[in-house]
Amino acid sequence: MTVASRIVELDSEGTTVRGWLFEPEPSDELAPAIVMLHGFTATATGMVADRYAEAFAEMGVVALLFDPRGFGLSDGEPRLAVNEWKQARDLQSGIGYVAGLGDIVDPDRIAVWGDSIGGGIALVVAAVDDRVAAVIAQVPAFGEEILPADADGEWFAMMQEVLRSGDLDAYDREVIGPLPVVSVDQEAAPSHLPTLTSFHWFINYGARYGTKWQNRATFELLETFRPFESQPCIAHVDVPLQLVIAEEDEMAGANSDVARHSFELASEPKELVQIDGGHFGLLYHDSPEFHASLEAQRGFLHRYVIDRRVT
């Protein structure tokens, strides 16, 4: 199937957010869609998530892969500031954008996709946004350790309220950085992502011409009543869920055992896909890990998005 791609603009709380829209060949039927968010500071241009988006479009799914505010193609100040709450709002704005493509997109079949920290954000949005029909979280950042159970649902209710109606700029915040995203020498230049695998991947892909990736960022932690976490939300995801995890994820924030534990909290239908290798293996285009991950994700989309018809 022929795929067309173009840069599009959407409004996210008054900020112009841009990304790549991948469109399959025109059809007499409305197509499903998937809205995609990359991992920590990675951009939508040439950093492998676009290869997933293109492959989804080849199977008939309209794919929107965007840069959150302050990164890559998108506007927004401050630049290079990772804020999970605001990126979740941007993901919701992306859902609204594709839902508004009424001439090509079926608004009842919109999935969300996220990688690493974007995977955790996608799960939170899937739990709070009724427009989401399915969610794929790839090597999701559930955290370093298992959190206490949110037995009374208070944590989730707070996150739901803040995302739906909270004034994010009104909260105090802790700002970590600016720091390099990756560094080869953690003693001389500590970085946000300290592993050599993260250094090699970002330098391999982010340093390529045209990506607009920059090796510097701050991380903003809003001082909400409870922090932004995906673990308390996963039990509230009531749409088909696929977790794609690395067997032994070396990134502390994407601990494989924590991901497996979180998966057990989710409702059916759900799928756990375990890929050989580490956190970045499935982000090397044309690697065996990439193809294994893509095959699993394409199958999931066929089962729960493409072949699903809402009457």
CATH topology of the domain at 4-146 and 233-306: Rossmann fold
Largest sheet: 8 strands, mixed
Helix/strand-derived category reads alpha/beta
The dominant shape is globular
Distance between the termini: 27 Å
pLDDT < 50 runs, ≥5 residues = none
Helix coverage percent of residues?
A: 25-40%
Task: Give the name of the CATH superfamily of the domain at 4-146 and 233-306.
Answer: Alpha/Beta hydrolase fold, catalytic domain
* CATH class type of the domain at 4-146 and 233-306: Alpha Beta
Order of neighbouring strands in the sheet with most strands: 1-2-4-3-6-7-10-11
Radius of gyration using CA atoms only: 18 Å
- SSE ordering: EEEHEEHEHEHEHEHEHEH
Quaternary organization = single chain
Number of helices: 8
Mean pLDDT: 96
Strand content: 15-25%
In CATH, the architecture of the domain at 4-146 and 233-306 is 3-Layer(aba) Sandwich
Report on the structure:
With 311 residues, the protein is α/β, with parallel strands linked by helices. It has a domain at 4-146 and 233-306: Rossmann fold (3-Layer(aba) Sandwich). The protein is built from 8 helices and 11 strands. It has helices at residues 49-58, 84-99, 117-128, 154-165, 196-206, 231-234, 256-265, 288-306; strands at residues 4-12, 15-23, 31-37, 62-66, 81-82, 105-115, 132-138, 173-179, 217-222, 241-246, 270-275. Strands 1-2-4-3-6-7-10-11 form an 8-stranded mixed β-sheet, with helices on both faces. Strands 5-9-8 form a 3-stranded mixed β-sheet, with helices on one face. Strand 1 (4-12) and strand 2 (15-23) form a beta hairpin. The chain is globular, with a radius of gyration of 18 Å. The two termini are 27 Å apart. The model has no long low-confidence stretch (mean pLDDT 96).
